[in-house]
């Protein structure tokens, strides 16, 4: 039915929604069981190596868990029970493990969200607030302040945090009232205490440049490290607290370039004095694309190791690897050679080794997994700690060389695991995760196929358990796009949900192919930074078509019953599929997708940053690379799902598309979630969206 509205309001549900029965529709069988997985995040350890903490989210209920050596028996630190949409983040443990600090509330962090009130996805009548919480000396959690985020603990037990882009401080015991630590006219972030807890380094963002500042006390002015017309970032203290290493990129690097062709963005690593700000360059990257500042999620991972070795991540050989560089200067040494990417890096307390995860290993399909490794800070020779066909990530170093990490298999839920220094003797901690028992989980198969231009594309194939005959097929496309779907649960909550949904759809008789299209991570820098992609030509869409043809050729699939679903950038590609190839894709579910790049602020960039001709060409290319440029060919029905407080993809992207579809009588339906953000904060929101999605897909592909 064209233009039918599925309104999932928390209160005051409209008569239209009641008459359609969507707001109160019962979830299809077993959906709630599949969505009842625990998601574990933010695993961190005290420098003493005797206490770990992490965040668990299950059915929208978020809690802090802790465990202490030697037995590491887990226990809940908080006792939340409501699906209230209030995030927990910024988890920190003090060096001795006596204090744990975190924040509650908030949502997406990007320039659009700056200055907006915290999200209110539960439509509470009282506006939620950002809150700073701590547990000190084993006591019950205490709210220390409102408006706090990104807290960091000093060795003296002092908490620095951000409030309205300024730096504030509080005491962990809550006895002294919080206060602003100092004034800065920039927007502050990246707070790092000196080892002795007496000084605080930070990044002051000034629009087209940024500085590294050092706060040394209330009676001393801020020290700026060699300020320049550059973007300075990633401050890292030397063990003796006398120096700070940091990264430098050109300020407003693309002023003289075209927005349609990637230009090299070289960077350098500097070392500055915390006392007087004098700094010198230790190394400059080559002015090549591979020498560019790494845009793989989480950036540089610049750290100061033992014997004055700086370690950092770069893509000098075309892959995101760890390198080691003498602080005095010289040429970097590649620590982690091979065709894989490094993520989730942490440094051992003695600063002699790095722990990290990577999509490397000897098992088939390891390029689509994550395993944990250890490497010295000064020489290559990684040691695999977690080989096999499971998935492991976010390593946290413990006493005696032991390591904690989050682990799962394709069919079992996440568990925090503690292992010996060599990776043996792994002990999965029992925090109730073992009671996740959704029936019918399958082991996805690693597959690959070639796009029309010959590029090899990877994916994961979910086959219905025990089903014979021809099944409807579904393509799933992830968002980002610098993301990678894995052969199991993801370390990101959004894609953990997507994995559970692909499993559920397989249990309902769909053959599902998750396509890791170009622009994603995991397959090298050239793959992530593909030519003529996104606003410059949409070359990534051919990977989706290749996946569809691969799926249609499968003996289990009815080629006439093929659909597509995805969120964010995956919503964009879903819209592309329906606009360009309604002959192939008979139905789609589009979660908060981009539909017209020319409406996307900042993507094409402001006109004054380019010659007018370059800007006009970029604007035209942006629209031509959008689904709405081909909307006349859109014939297949689509379900549009969007939260109207989205701070990542603006809600007007879906408003605009709905108007255009209605104008040409293309069938569409809507599920609008008032006050939800991009990555839905409530389990209830996901359950409504998934219920609607499954019903819509089955109605169109399984009549």
Essential attributes:
globular; 703 residues; 4-stranded antiparallel β-sheet; 9 helices; 9-stranded mixed β-sheet; disordered N terminus
Could you describe the 3D structure shown?
Helix content is 14%, strand content 34%. The strands form 9 sheets. Strands 1-41-40-39-38-36-37-35-34 form a 9-stranded mixed sheet, with helices on both faces. A 4-stranded antiparallel sheet has the order 2-3-4-5, with no helix packed on it. The longest helix has 19 residues, at 683-701. The model is unreliable at 1-22 (pLDDT under 50).
CATH topology of the domain at 4-33 and 438-701: Rossmann fold
User: Which outline best applies?
Assistant: globular
Rg (CA only): 25 Å
CATH superfamily of the domain at 4-33 and 438-701: Alpha/Beta hydrolase fold, catalytic domain
What's the number of extended β-strand segments? 41
- Give a quick account of the main beta sheet: strands, pairing sense, barrel closure: 9 strands, mixed
- Relative strand content: 25-35%
Q: Please report the first level of CATH classification, the CATH class of the domain at 4-33 and 438-701.
A: Alpha Beta
Strand order of the largest sheet: 1-41-40-39-38-36-37-35-34
- Percentage of helical residues? 10-25%
Structural class: alpha+beta
Straight-line distance between termini:
15 Å
- Contiguous runs where pLDDT drops below 50 for at least 5 residues: 1-22
What CATH architecture of the domain at 4-33 and 438-701 do you see?
A: 3-Layer(aba) Sandwich
Number of helical regions: 9
């Amino acid at each position: 039915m064209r233009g039918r509205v599925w309104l999932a309001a928390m209160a005051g549900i409209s008569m239209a929604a009641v008459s359609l029965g969507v707001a109160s529709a019962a979830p299809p069988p077993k959906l709630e069981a599949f969505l009842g997985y625990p998601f574990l995040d933010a695993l961190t350890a005290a420098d003493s190596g005797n206490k770990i903490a992490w965040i668990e989210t299950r059915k929208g209920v978020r809690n802090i868990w802790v465990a202490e050596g030697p037995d590491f028996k887990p226990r809940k630190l908080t006792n939340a029970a409501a699906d209230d949409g209030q995030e927990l983040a910024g988890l920190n443990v003090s060096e001795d493990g006596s204090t744990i600090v975190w924040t509650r509330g908030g949502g997406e962090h990007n320039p659009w969200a700056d200055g907006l009130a915290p999200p209110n996805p539960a439509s509470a009548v009282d506006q939620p607030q950002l809150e700073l919480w701590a547990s000190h000396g084993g006591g019950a959690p205490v709210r220390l302040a409102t408006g706090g985020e990104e807290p960091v603990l000093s060795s003296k037990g002092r908490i620095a945090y951000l409030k309205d882009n300024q730096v504030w401080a509080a005491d962990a015991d809550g006895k002294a009232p919080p206060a602003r630590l100092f004034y800065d006219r920039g927007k502050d972030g990246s707070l790092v205490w000196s080892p002795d807890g007496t000084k605080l380094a930070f990044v002051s963002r000034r629009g087209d440049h940024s500085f590294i500042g050092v706060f040394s006390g209330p009676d001393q002015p801020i020290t700026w490290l060699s300020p320049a017309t550059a973007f300075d970032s990633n401050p890292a203290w030397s063990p003796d607290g006398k120096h700070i290493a940091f990264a430098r990129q050109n300020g407003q690097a693309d002023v003289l370039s075209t927005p349609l062709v990637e230009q090299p963005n070289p960077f350098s690593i500097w070392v500055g004095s915390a006392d007087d700000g004098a700094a010198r360059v230790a190394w400059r990257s080559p002015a090549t694309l591979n020498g560019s500042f790494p845009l793989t999620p989480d950036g540089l991972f610049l750290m100061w190791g033992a014997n004055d070795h700086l370690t950092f991540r770069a893509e000098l050989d075309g892959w995101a690897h760890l390198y080691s560089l003498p602080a005095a200067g010289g040429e970097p040494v590649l620590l982690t050679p091979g065709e894989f990417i490094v993520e989730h890096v942490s440094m051992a307390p003695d600063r002699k080794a790095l722990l990290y995860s990577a999509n490397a290993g000897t098992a088939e399909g390891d390029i689509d997994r994550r395993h944990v490794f250890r490497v010295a800070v000064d020489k290559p020779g990684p040691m695999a700690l977690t080989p096999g066909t499971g998935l492991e990530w976010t390593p946290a170093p413990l006493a005696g060389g032991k390591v904690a990490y989050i682990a799962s298999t394709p069919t079992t839920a996440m568990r925090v695991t503690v292992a010996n220094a060599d990776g043996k003797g792994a002990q999965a901690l029992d925090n109730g995760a073992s009671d996740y028992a959704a029936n019918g989980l399958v082991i996805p198969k690693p597959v690959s196929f070639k796009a029309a231009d010959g590029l090899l594309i990877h994916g994961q194939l979910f086959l219905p358990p025990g089903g014979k005959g021809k099944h409807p097929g579904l393509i799933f496309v992830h968002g980002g796009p610098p993301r990678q779907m894995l052969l199991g649960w993801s370390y990101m909550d959004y894609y953990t949900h997507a994995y559970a949904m692909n499993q559920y759809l397989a249990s309902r008789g769909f053959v599902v192919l998750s396509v890791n299209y170009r622009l994603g991570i995991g397959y090298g820098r050239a793959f992530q930074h593909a030519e003529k992609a996104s606003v410059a030509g949409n070359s990534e869409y051919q990977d989706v078509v290749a996946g569809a043809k691969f799926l249609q050729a499968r003996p289990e699939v009815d080629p006439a019953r093929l659909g597509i679903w995805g969120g964010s950038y995956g919503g964009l590609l879903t819209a592309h599929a329906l606009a360009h190839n309604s002959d192939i894709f008979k139905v789609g579910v589009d979660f908060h997708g981009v539909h017209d790049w020319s409406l996307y602020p900042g993507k094409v960039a402001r006109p004054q940053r380019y010659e007018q001709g370059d800007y006009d060409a970029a604007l035209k290319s942006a629209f031509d690379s959008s689904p709405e440029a081909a909307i006349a060919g859109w014939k297949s029905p689509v379900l549009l799902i969007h939260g109207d407080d989205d701070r990542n993809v603006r809600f007007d992207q879906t408003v605009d598309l709905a108007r255009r579809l209605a104008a040409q009588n293309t069938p569409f339906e809507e599920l609008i979630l008032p006050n939800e953000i991009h990555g839905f904060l409530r389990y209830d929101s996901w359950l409504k969206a998934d219920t609607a999605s499954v019903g819509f897909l089955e109605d169109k592909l399984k009549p």
